[in-house]
Batch of 4 targets.
Target 1
Amino acid sequence: MIELDAPLVMLGQFDWATWFSMFWFMVLLEVPRYTLSAISVFAASFARPTVPTPAEQRYLDGLKLSVVIAGHNEADAIERCLRSLGEQTRRIDEIIFIDDGSTDGMREIIHKYRLLGQIDIALSNQVRSGKSASCNLGFSLARGDIIINLDADCSYDCDAIERLIEPFIDPRVGATTGSIGVRNYDYSAVTAYQAIEYIVSIGMGKRALDMLDMVVCASGAFGAFRRGAIHQVGLLAPGPGEDFDLTLRLRRCGWKIRFAANSWCFTDTPATLAALVRQRRRWDRDTLRTRLRKFRDTFHARRRRFALLETFEQCEWLVMNGLVTLVFPIYVAWLFLCFGVGALNILIAVALVYLVLDAIGFLMALAICRRYSAAMVWAVAPYLLTFGLYNGVFMRCVRLHAYGEEWIYRASSRDSYSPSRVSHQAHWKR
Amino acid sequence: MLMGVDGFALTPTANFLAYPKLHDECRFPPGWQLVARGEMIDALVLTAAVPDNALRTILAHIGDPLVPIVSLVPDERQGIDAGGQGEQFAWERAYAIQAKLRELPGSIRHSAEPEDILLARVYSRDQGLVPILDSGARDLVRYPVAGMLDNVSELAAGLDHKGYLRRRFFDRLFCCPQCRSAHLSVREECHSCRSANITEEVVVHHFQCAHEAPESQFRSHGGFTCPKCARPLRHIGLDYDKPGSITRCLECGSINDKPAVGFKCIDCGAHHAPDQVPARTWYAYSLTAVGQRRVLRGAADESVPAQAGFDRFQLLLEHTRKEQREFGSPYQVANVTFANRSVIAAQDLRLWEQSQQLVGDTLHSALREVDAVREHAEGFLILMPRTGPHDAARALQLVAARIRGVLKVDPGFRFTLVDDVALEGFCSRQG
Ligand SMILES: [Zn+2]
Ligand SMILES: [Zn+2]
Ligand SMILES: [Zn+2]
């Protein structure tokens, strides 16, 4: 029988060496990350918010904006999406909708809104081409200086676009992405966990990465691109993971990717565990494939594409995600091997530390973002107690499983994300 | 057909006028004779192609809107009763028509009333008032039987309302909202600038690099290569496919899925969007038994009860008033109008037409059997016998709720209870 206070009692009984042998995983791999991002974000929160000078504002006002939204069977989302675009404080010069072979009447609906003048270009693929191809069609027809890629099933703050394009004052910026919040946080436990996950990752992780100039994914649901830049690197590659791939190519060509923290988009996250696992398996496989298979050369120092920052960024990811994920099961096994049943106590102690870290991270993220409603915070706060299990154990297992799948079977080649005839051709010929 | 009673029917010889002149070798059938000066003309026989203005002059000279006109040469103009089907047919047709005309009483035969003329023509031509499509007519539709009469469809609608003619659907044609001409050109055009100078282009999707763009981008480098990855596209279904198409305007450069449809009036040059173009329904008419009696007796037949389409409203109103005078039972007449009518009609005329029809149907189903409805230019008049003002208002509020439930647009239902003076104004305006 394990006493609830046993882990705490145990902690006081050991010397440093034993203590380290029990908690090395957390000390080596987890605490640094939390601490680093906490410190950097805390420092960043003191930095004065930059307001564009009149000249910069004139430059921003002169930019032409094209919004490209491609979707498959999103008929129900279009009205809400257009309503939030209609509320934007920044002028949008062109709205392009691409219906990718929908069968739910999306084609008729975008046609209707085009007749009403709320959409400028409404096109349809009779057969489904995949997210990348339909976005590419929109990108190749867009005439704006900045092309903003949005999702029909997201909704946006009324100043989202204005804030999203602010970083383009810097001519070296090729793409920006904004903060993403969870709209359906109160739907189920699964969405509540994700809401916490998004709050922490947006409030802490992304801000830290932005400070270090290491933002690597301008989201396909919420990203802005300089037209010259994406035409230079050649639009989107076949999916999945195409938004991440495009951002990496932009970085490789020397473009900066910025995170516009005050630009907010809200989306519905998967509401059931099965859907969540499906989504994460796809994301994790794509990330691994894109990073290791397609961008292996960032590790070859003599290659022309080598850049110190890129390599550091890749290493950071490798350690923080790859290594942590792979080592975690080894750590658990090792604990049981060394300490037998006592390992349970240690794991509970670890969980308690996580709880504290999570709570601190959550509170800091809330303090920094100042975007979440009190209702949302109170609704998701109880789930913090078990968030460590969700994030530290469950998600880690999903990720491990996905990496294994990708590594062994190249599963992402057979993803149903693109229609099979397309992805078969695209991957077979690569 | 010999009537045997009237003297002239026993002498079946008919007078005809030949124009321009009777050929020397032309032999007219027995029973006909060339008209002598001062005699009544039973038929006008055209022996050659006659210009419009000459025909009009000679018809004015004859002064009989019912006279049969037949042509011995092909002639399909309005008002020609036979032409191009052979001389034999022409003579027989003329004879049949003039025989029918002789059955008419003098009050109809010599009436100058357009309604009488139309009924007499329909009766004597014995084939109903059937429209034909004719590209030469401004409405694209004309009624050959109606001869030189104007406003035939309005006249016929009036006679249908009175029960003398019965209509059936013939066709529904769009007409210019500006000049009412049906000479409309239907075109595919640009959504932005309404130019017809547009081209369609297919969209190409290259599987390997996920590039998707109009075909011209793939053709610009001589062969058929991808502008994004520079690889050649060789095999449809394997390298690439064509998932859709775009329409590009060559005037303003705007791009769209499908071209817009527009109507251009050939007569006045005005341009209209499809939802601004009203449709006009055309009917064919046949003479009813009441109509036939009216033609043959020469006066409105009082013994005939009101048929469907007869002015039920007026009859009921008179009856209700009599009831009020004699028994003191109150009645109400409500004038229903639609505040949003002009707004809706300006946006989408056809939507308004449909809405108005729906409102009519809803009124008929929501009101009692004893109530009567009459449509007028601004809306409807509703007669509610044996009803006090409060009950009438409550019933109309129910009707308004029902209409709101049925229509997709809010027509702005308003009603006022009108007194007798205002009612007289309405009824006299109706004619
Ligand atoms: Zn145009
Ligand atoms: Zn290509
Ligand atoms: Zn016209």
Target 2
Amino acid sequence: MELSPESLQRIEKLIPRYPTKRSAVLPLLHIIQEEIGYISKTSMEWVAKKLDLNPMQVYEVVTFYPMLKEEPVGRVQVKVCRTLSCALRGGYKVCETLQKELACPLNGKSEDGAFSIEFVECLASCGTAPVVMVDDVLHEEVTPDKAGDFAKELKSSSKQKA
Amino acid sequence: MAVKETRILLKNVDQPGYTNDIECYMKHGGYKVLQAALKRKPEDLCKEIETSGIRGRGGAGFPAGMKWKFLDRKSGKPIYLICNADESEPGTFKDRQLLYKDPHQLLEGMMIAAYATQTALSFIYIRGEMYEGARILERAIEEARAKGFLGDNIGGSGYSCDMIVHRGAGAYICGEETGLIESLEGKRAYPRIKPPYFPAVLGLYQCPTIVNNVETLCHVKHAIEMGGDAFAKIGTPGNTGTRIWSVSGHVQRPGYYEFPCAGATLGELIYDVCGGLAPGRILKAVIPGGSSSKVLKAGERYKGTFKDGTPFDWSLEDIPLDFDSFVLAGTMSGSGAVIVMDDTTDMVEATANINAFYAHESCGQCTPCREGSLWLSRVTKRMCSGDARKEDADLLKDIADQIDGRTICAHGEATAWPVQALATKFKDEFIAKAAEPKEAALSDRQGESAFRLI
Ligand SMILES: Cc1cc2nc3c(=O)[nH]c(=O)nc-3n(C[C@H](O)[C@H](O)[C@H](O)COP(=O)(O)O)c2cc1C
Ligand code: SF4
Ligand code: FES
């Protein structure tokens, strides 16, 4: 596993702030996932060594938290809120439209690897439902009417990135 | 608008020109309360919070002053303070406003709470999806540190306390305080059993720990500023201060609104403040305190007597917005998350949506919660795919009853309570589902009036 010098520096600064090394597990995993995109077995072993833990103690954390991924996801990660307040305003419909427009199955990747779509639970923005997260940015009031255009914008901006 | 908001916590939030940096906060009088507090005895401040009667805004409504008093000081172990910013109860989005738009208000409240309880180290546990929120807090902490309001020798008082922002990773159960503590220790968020693991005694690293909600800790600043007595005069006895209500679902103006406790009714909130329902729609049901609270059905009456013997007879619209009134109406105010549903809502689908949430979020430690939540979810999903049976309402109620009271943490009740209320109050709809032709359940809905909920 190769981490950038910046990430390594963040990690070195972070660990001694906690009363126990083990508390730094989630922060380390976040840093790794943000840089590499997912958490491989090698990464888990690296974290375990860094924090004087058994690899199993890292693995059981990775498998517990829905945000931590063991496999690479799409280059753009789309998370649609599934929960009641969003559903009441068309969240399911939005998710369907996004799947169709981005040619991406739910909980899977598009063939070109550009997108992945998943349903997630309440994102604490129910007053501006339906909401969709794209990578680390929250998009509010993505209504069923707007979902098609929203998908088109995602597609054109992902092309620019690639 | 007949009723008016009283914005204390949200006073500056959304004001034109108000930004979330320390300069703006200090221009508006920020950190003066902390500086004054540091000159007082910590015990005095704790007393002030007790007098204020502040109740926890995270869900359970437990008095903050009493919680602080339970701290085991005899142990001689360090004391920790944790701000619960996991905000994940479906329907709730008030903490987000406070975190993103006025982070220094929270930091000031936390440092006052830290000094009052002589905390050694403080944490903000923020849900993982709030990337921007975590960045805002990190920056706010560095700004406050640079000005000496946090870190070493705060305000020249000799008292030191650092603050760490710790990000969750998408698990609802991290909002439960002992699950949160386990998570902060670097483990799975498996809630601990109480007794003996009351955080105030055996909390983080087995040390005395306070866990308070974002809104609660923001109130601390104002209670110290105005004094406990003055704070207690806002609202009603036992229900003091203002509260922020998150309103979502089928109203014209969803949003967050702050009122003194009992300063408005549920009806005023829905119709005056939030502009009522869409034209032509009729109110069907309201979930008053996040998805784990029991549903209120339009047209119901809530009757009984107050502690002093005077009787009350309320419609749903009459219920005062506070803590105790919702308990009197057979439910709870929880996190203050009001989810409004109009007559187009399919209540079986709404139940299925809620059940899917709790099935997904059970940590799996207790058999009744793990198996029961999945079973409830399977039954309601089946009902919504055209295979409903007449006896399903009773089955659901029966499963829920077997979860309630038989688990390590209150996620069990959070799973059971909505079903107990929904499958009973809307039983006729659950039964009618069985008579619905299969095609109707699976057909694509037309128009905005009928979004699929599962
Ligand atoms: C399943 C479950 C989820 C919870 N989620 C949250 C949450 O997201 N935020 C929160 O502040 N409290 C949450 N709580 C309540 C906390 O356990 C705890 O009571 C609260 O943080 C205490 O703070 P307060 O007294 O200031 O309200 C949750 C409780 C349960 C049982
Ligand atoms: S009640 Fe549910 S969430 Fe709580 S500890 Fe038991 S299994 Fe976990
Ligand atoms: S239900 Fe979607 S953000 Fe809360």
Target 3
Amino acid sequence: MFRQVRFLPSENVHGRLLPWVVAVMVFLAGLALLVAVGLQATAHAWHEGLARTLTVQVVNPDAEMREQETAAAMDVLTGVPGIASVRRESNEEVASLLEPWLGKGNVVADLPVPAVIDVKLADGAEVDVKALQQNLAQAAPSARVDAHEQWLSDLLVVMRIVQWVSALIVALVGMATVVIIIFATRAGLASHRETVEIVHLMGAQDGLIAGAFQRRFLWVGVKGALLGLVALAIGLGAIYLVREQQHGALLPELVPPPRVLASLLVLPVLSGLITMLTARFAVQRALADMN
Amino acid sequence: MIRFDNVGMRYGMGEEVLRDITFELDRGSFHFLTGRSGAGKTSLLKLMYLSERPSRGLISMMGVDIVMAKRRELPRLRRHIGVVFQDYRLLDHLSAYDNVALPLRISGAAKAEVRDYVEELLVWVGLKDRMQARPPTLSGGEKQRVAIARAVINRPSILLADEPTGNVDDDMADRLMRLFIELNRLGTTTVIATHDMRLVGSIEAPRLHLEAGDLIELPPGADLPLATSGLAPQLPEAMPQALGYTRDR
Ligand SMILES: Nc1ncnc2c1ncn2[C@@H]1O[C@H](COP(=O)(O)OP(=O)(O)OP(=O)(O)O)[C@@H](O)[C@H]1O
Ligand SMILES: [Mg+2]
């Protein structure tokens, strides 16, 4: 590229503040990024886990009828294409589900507890829940299909929205950074106007002059981003400690797996690139006005 | 080397400060540029060091038509033009040494080359002990010598000096003139703007004389024709009233 010639004075107060502004930006972007990535992982896990299962309850209050209907429903379910396995939960399992509400005891004997059938779908199979319900209605009129679908998809929508908002925040923070750097470069150019003009008159190419600013702003971007990441690490560490004390009750899992943490390291690179290229662009625009 | 053809120049929307300037300077020539304060000497030099563009006419520097030239062709030309600015225009945050080294570094000179040349030249202009000083701590004459050293360090093809000896005593002025003459002998086309008539008289050299924006070419030793020398602007004779202005303070 171009020769490096040191001709700019060392940084003034504005210049020394700039990395801190970038640090705040990177902190915000990092937080938003963590939320987006974290939700992505959670949503994926839920989708994989829950969408692959159905629950069928047979709720006939008469114990004998219930057993008959259950057996019939199991038959029907086994014959449906796309269903990988069908398993009836034992009365003890059902009872243990109810224990928290009803207390330990002869729950099953005293109460008309519904029979619960766990259904696992084959990988990639789609099952039409409405058709299934109708099929079952003939064999077992009191059977109810619970597809987890409604509340899961509601939750997924909420998660998607939060993810989009996070992505939007990252984009906005990026744009704000660009604007700040443009202003900072312009201010730098203005305060070093005489210097730049003299160097220009000595025959320095635009690239050489832009290079001096570019190197300076690359450093601003990288340094600011590292500061921001340190702040983020401190913040996550604090959340982690509080979570430990509360035994993870209220605070969400914000401390991400190492793989996600490592992906945060793109931020200094990105930040450096943004500040550097923005400075280069702004300087070259300004120089184009000089003869 | 330098050719002006019917050049006019104005600042912004103002009146033309240079009108119908036509002249040609051969490679290796030496000229004084004279004229009253405000006649347009600095403006003419600005056109030559490619700081301003003419508002009309043709200018050719080193065979390149600079009105038609693309912007990116100009830096290469500028690196062959050494300029002593009337107000020095040194970089205040750099030492005298680094100021003088700047043109060499921009041209990509080797480190050792920079060190040898810069030191030698600064010693020659009498700034051996002030090499690491920053311009704000230098006297006017010292700054001027740094500016001259910076202009000649690259052995330019064209040297343009704007009042280069205005701030030094006669002995130093003569010493600096010897530097210019030596550079000129080595082939540098030289133009020195000055109103110092002692300096103009000290060397046999043709003159470009500006009279309120018009150019007159004069052979060595010639005086101004009477018709033009009478064009002095009318200035008031009486002392300014402001000198007698008093007020309770
Ligand atoms: N940047 C500028 N903008 C507007 N007018 C200018 C500018 N620079 C110079 N002028 C005007 O142009 C005219 C010529 O100025 P110039 O500096 O070329 O004179 P000069 O011969 O160098 O004078 P001096 O001997 O005092 O240095 C003057 O009338 C001056 O007021
Ligand atoms: Mg002048």
Target 4
Amino acid sequence: MIEARGLTKRYGEIRAVDDVSFEIGAGEVVGFLGPNGAGKTTTMRMLTGYLPPTDGTALVAGHDIFEEPLAARRAIGYLPETPPVYPEMDVQGYLRFAARLRDVPRARLREAVDRALERCRLTEVRRRVIGALSKGYRQRVGLAQAIVHTPPVLILDEPTVGLDPTQIREIRELISNLASSTEGGERHTVILSTHILPEVEAICRRVILIHQGRKVVDAPLAELTAEGQSLEEIFARETARDVVEEAAA
Amino acid sequence: MRHIPTIAGRELGAFFVSPVAYVVLSLYALLAGFFFLSSILQFNEIVIRLQQFQAIEQLQAVNLNDYVISPFLGVMSVVLLFLVPGITMGLFAAEKANGTDELLLTSPITIWDIVLGKYLAAAAFVLLMVALLGLYPGILFLYGDPEIGKTTAGMLALLLTGLLYAAIGAFASSVTANQIIAFVLSFVLLLLLLMLSVIADLGAAGGALGATGTVAELLRYLSTNDHFETMVRGLVDTADLAYYGAMIGSFLILAKAAVESVRWR
Ligand SMILES: Nc1ncnc2c1ncn2[C@@H]1O[C@H](COP(=O)(O)OP(=O)(O)O)[C@@H](O)[C@H]1O
Ligand SMILES: [Mg+2]
């Protein structure tokens, strides 16, 4: 469903993302792990078409992000690090706008918006202005815009950052539900970035760990923790190394 | 291109929930009323004076178009110079400050959809402003007999000037995430555009731009000044229409390039 081929992003001398490749099949739920500044956001921005890779490319639902950018983007629901909401719009107006941007047919707009509202438990606040909502609700609105066109691929960038414990639990539940629900017979493919390890353990089946822009671990969660190591230990060990120095030596 | 109305609709909605639209519209109506009244009073004074001196010939040359409507439209084009940047400053800058550019740029729409949708919204607002302004010369038709052709040409000149200002404002908004900077930048660009003909005149007079005068000609052509003046005098020339079209197109192409360049960095 998602195939990254040597994705690289350079900012001057800095390699924010360096030759990252992976393949994610339909219905997989992958935790995209790494410390702050590892390159998670940059990778997701390349997959979603916000940033062009300096090198490499990616395929989303079979569409190359360079050759068929619109088809690739149509297959994606994306929640950026900060929810991309307009504070002056009301919730349902905003979701309607997002659905129209993603080519939901006019006749199905209402149904799509109602469904997204329901799944993100926003129905009660549908007429409220987004700027007046709490951070947790705004995050749910962000999630609702990502699923309003029922995309096969979900890309979520730190969906629980800055929320209180109750809100975190709610958002996680929501994502788990999305991950396990079927959409027209097919399951959502989910990539979720985070540096919160319990989040990965709660939701994901597979872990991709990146550090200093490079992929250092890519394995099923069960396999990683089979030898009695905790995810935390693995994370600490892998991110303590200076992979850039090692490669240079 | 299908998404232009989606973008334009949201933008127009945002105009009218923010106070900016109402501030701009009321300021505009207020200033228009003031300048209209003052040109009428001035016109009256001229007529009374000419009657006192029995200057029949000059009295016949005085008319509503040249003594009220044209100067009024001229002043209002200067007012647009201050107000249009207020409308356009948020077009792109606010998206970047909000992070909503990430929604637009990762949706299956083209950059032209975004740029044209936003420009269309600003253009609709300018159209509304000019249409409201049309009420004032409209009043004159009730009490006098201004030439309809000349008046229409003048209104068209004002509309095209406003549309050009909106394109320049859109471009200014596309290069920054700060609305204040966008406002100042578009204001400076608009002032420069207006001043080009003054610079050309000064340069030609002082010989600073070389004896050839081609540079001065070019500057004068690029400036809105002469095109506006020509049209307000009632002469709608395809060359002037082409000028507005080409300038608007150029600034929209620049805005599109600026929006796209987020991706090159
Ligand atoms: N626009 C930019 N210019 C320069 N460096 C950048 C830019 N954006 C990100 N970076 C750098 O790229 C690296 C990866 O950042 P990011 O992808 O945001 O990490 P993460 O999301 O994993 O915290 C960081 O070192 C960051 O400083
Ligand atoms: Mg990040």
